[in-house]
Amino acid sequence: MIYLDNAATTAPDAAAVSAALAFYGQKFHNPSSLYGAGFEAHRAVQDARRSLLAHIAPAGGFELVFTASGSEADNQAIFSSVRRGNFVTTAGEHAAVYQSAKELERRGIEVRYARLHADGSVDGEDLLRLVDEHTSLVSVIHVNNETGAVNDIAALSAAVKKKNAKALFHSDGVQAFGKIPFSLPQSVDLYTVSAHKIGGVRGAAALIRKKGVPLHPLIFGGGQENGLRSGTENTFAIVQFAAAAEKKFSSLGRDLEHVRALNSAVRTGLDTGIFTILSAEDASPYIVSVAAKGLRGEVLLHMLDDAGVQVGTGSACSSKNRYSRVMLACGLGEALADGVLRISFCAQNTAEEAAEAVAIINRCAAQLKERTK
């Protein structure tokens, strides 16, 4: 099976699992316990926290709160920050941000959605137009999880602060962390990362915040994570997250070039009589979205699965919807949006896999097109 749905989740890195395995077995102790074994688990969590922060905040000035998922971290950033005024975000956000915005609307908060360009990146001018003196939070996804479009959150956050110095700026960085070079600027207040997109196991993620930025808990209880996220820490998943991130960042440049070659092979190899490339050339090379003209993407996905290739049709968190709201916001008509496939890579994918996948995708699409005549 050729797995090309890495934007949904990646296979856990075996070396990172081995590095953390002791905390799944003999070092199972609660990090809040007062005896020595508990303190050892606590120290492992703290070491992981420092290690993860160092990758994108080397100059310091940021803190990290562990959560169970990127969605939880997004929720905490939004519901903690938007308690007055209006919330500005984009039409291209991950469901964790978009559905949180809809919940805020149900609670009576005004939410403003900035338009997208055709590639899924935010229209920066429209975003800034929506920011005013009453804006409490602006949230812009770093790398669009459906098209791979990269938003310049350093420039956008600086521009937001120039217009309203009191507004907080959050970014969902789940598809960026460990994949594209980036260092957090002081104009970004809150930033979400997740383990399972970079070879970590599910159950570990984090919300990074600039020191001094107000943050309130979503989950109350024992006061773990300095009172910001109660619940006994998943030591194994946290330690494994740090080990996976260490490996990813040590080879980030090499992996980027390798994945860029895979992306190019798919772009140039797909049948242009059937497929339209939706992702821009300057998008994250880890994601390339395409549309099969006149074909149903979900039907093609199942054909590909039977033929040995696993891809997505968009965000795995919104797979029950026939049309992607993000693709519609990019300006695609329903006929084209119905045929979207998302092909996403990891560093372990090979050139041979990419070539074989292209051949299978072209063959299955041609077969489906013949049936629909």
UniProtKB/TrEMBL annotation:
Q: Does the keyword Flavoprotein apply?
A: no
Q: Which top-rank group of organisms is this from?
A: Bacteria
Q: Which InterPro entries match?
A: Aminotrans_V_dom, Cysteine_dSase, PyrdxlP-dep_Trfase, PyrdxlP-dep_Trfase_major, PyrdxlP-dep_Trfase_small
Recorded GO molecular functions are:
cysteine desulfurase activity; iron-sulfur cluster binding; metal ion binding; transaminase activity
Q: Which cofactor does it need?
A: pyridoxal 5'-phosphate
Which keywords annotate this record? Aminotransferase, Iron, Iron-sulfur, Metal-binding, Pyridoxal phosphate, Transferase
Check the record and name the Pfam families matching this protein. Aminotran_5 (PF00266)
User: Which reactions appear under catalytic activity for this entry?
Assistant: (sulfur carrier)-H + L-cysteine = (sulfur carrier)-SH + L-alanine
Concerning PANTHER family, the annotation shows: CYSTEINE DESULFURASE, CYSTEINE DESULFURYLASE FAMILY MEMBER
Can you name this protein?
Answer: Aminotransferase class V-fold PLP-dependent enzyme
| Organism the protein comes from | Candidatus Borkfalkia faecavium
